[in-house]
Amino acid sequence: MTQVSRITDEQTPTSTSSTILLRISKFNPEHDDSGRFMEFTIPYEKWTTVLEAILDVKKHFDHSVAVRYSCRQATCGSCGMIINGKPRLACFTKISELNSNVVTVEPMNNFPIIRDLAVKFERLFNTHQKIKPYLIRDDSELESDEKEFLQSPEEVEQYIQFANCIKCGLCNSACPTMATDSSFVGPQALAQAYRYVADSRDKGKDSRLKIIDDSHGIWRCHFAGSCSQVCPKGVDPAMGIQLLRGYLLGFRG
Question: pTM of the entire structure?
């Protein structure tokens, strides 16, 4: 495995900054037989994020580093990757919080690699669409003069946590079942299925439950719970999956 360490005068640390060894996974499946890590010594402040360090490398050392990012505010879900062995958002992860002099970044597990840190999201988007991620109402209701379908605070509380999903893919990356079953819908889609099943305004519960009531659906989950541990928005897919099973087993209405 080739390892390269570089630093320039332009990046000489100031008296107020520390340095870390940033190890970036480099792999292009179109040209490379195997991956390697390139190493860079990077200065950082207490507020510096992993994404900022990667972009520092991209700007000063290696323009070819492939990384997906957008909002830089943990809202778009674009910059998911493995940081020191755990799925995280690079823009939401401060180097100072990792308590390590070495930061290793790799592409997310369970996703095909495009190049370096960027992966393909087709499977995640396809499974998300499969569970019909929208409110389903009767046509007659939609054609009526009623414009709002009001909910009580208690009704909103049933699903609002799951509405915070930003489709970053971290839960799918952490899921061991995703690695062994290429047809498994995954914790992200199952959590979103619960989000709509639990919504009192929705009328599509039966159709959604039929979609996930499958050997590659909800019954394939082994409840490792790793999906809930890595969500940056506090969503608990494992709990959503348990609650969905309650609907399928007749314990919930």
Answer: 0.89
